[in-house]
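Dear H.,

Thanks for agreeing to be a second pair of eyes. The structure we're designing against is below in token form, covering all 55 positions.
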């Protein structure tokens, strides 16, 4: 079987949350994106949704 196994992603996410590591992974991903030029400081935030609901 080829492709991405979504059950592996769910398992990985559960382990991250269980060990309180979700912020660490996010911070490292954000740092990599900044270094690669994908994310810059400031600017405008956009979404393709007409309505965003926040809880």
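And this is the sequence the design step returned. I haven't edited it by hand at all.
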């Amino acid at each position: 079987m080829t492709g991405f196994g979504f059950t592996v992603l769910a398992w990985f996410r559960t382990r991250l949350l269980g060990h309180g590591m979700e912020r660490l992974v996010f911070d490292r991903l954000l740092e990599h994106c900044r270094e690669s030029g994908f994310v810059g400081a400031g600017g405008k935030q956009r979404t393709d949704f007409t309505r965003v609901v926040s809880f």
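Two observations from my side: The chain has a mean pLDDT of 81. Residues 23 and 29 are 10 Å apart (CA to CA).

Warmly,
E.
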